[in-house]
Amino acid sequence: MLRIAVPNKGSLSEPASAMLHEAGYRQRKDRRELVLVDAENEVEFFFLRPRDIAVYVGSGKLDIGITGRDLLLDSGSPAEEILQLGFAGSTFRYATRPGTAKDVSEFGGMTIATSFAGLVRQHLADNGVDASVVHLDGAVETAIQLGVAEIIADVVETGTTLRNAGLEIIGEPILESEAVVIRGTGAPDDDPKVRQFLRRMQGVLVARRYVMMDYDIRVEHVEKAVGLTPGLESPTVSPLHHEGWVAVRSMVPSKDAQRIMDELYELGARAILTTGIHACRL
Prior knowledge:
This protein has three domains: 2-86 and 178-207, 3-Layer(aba) Sandwich (D-Maltodextrin-Binding Protein, domain 2); 90-176, D-Maltodextrin-Binding Protein, domain 2; 210-276, Alpha-Beta Plaits. Helix content is 29%, strand content 33%. It has helices spanning 13-22, 50-58, 69-75, 117-126, 142-145, 160-164, 192-209, 222-228, 257-267; strands at residues 2-7, 35-38, 43-48, 64-68, 79-84, 90-96, 111-114, 132-135, 151-156, 168-177, 179-184, 210-218, 236-239, 245-253, 270-276. The longest helix has 18 residues, at 192-209. The two termini are 25 Å apart. The mean pLDDT is 94.
């Protein structure tokens, strides 16, 4: 069986399980379940702390896993990302009191508090900066107020929490993170079970981004209409019983669907419909 690590809690957990469910895999009904066997799909799921997943996958104990890019890099584990999943996006930034420093080049001799010590140490090394790093498990914004550090490094969404603590974001982002599928470095590329899993997950990603659009249009307007709905390969065009009209079917980006429907209507298209895509293979 393919052995897959899945986050058991936190911001990664529910979206990961939802995506796996959409991909046709069984998912646990009881949060206390730590292992779930999906015999029909020949997969065994292990529900683990998100921070530990890269370690298990990198060690070869599990085949692949779903975790955050930030957690993967922070772990230092011999694992690599093989697919971006598009959820749990975050930005990792430095922050400090106004006037302390402008960017990472000025951090020399200072102390930085963070929950991602491995990631920060690597970033400092990449920039040739000699600074101390203190690992904290959470609420790092209080480290400056309590005199533990001059700088903090943390996940930033709106920046409101930092501003409320009297801090400002400085320098360029350390990392743009999101949920990713990972495997051990050096694992074979041709594992058929892994390839099948990736195809299913890619199918979910596509299904979430596209809708199927159907419409009727007069023959003389087909070329302009197809220009609006080119599809992934080419749209399907079928003659209608009513002479001079054809039916067109094509996949279009869901974010553009309403605009495309308006433009098709102005072009003369009628019976314009969109339907969701639950699964696909490209």
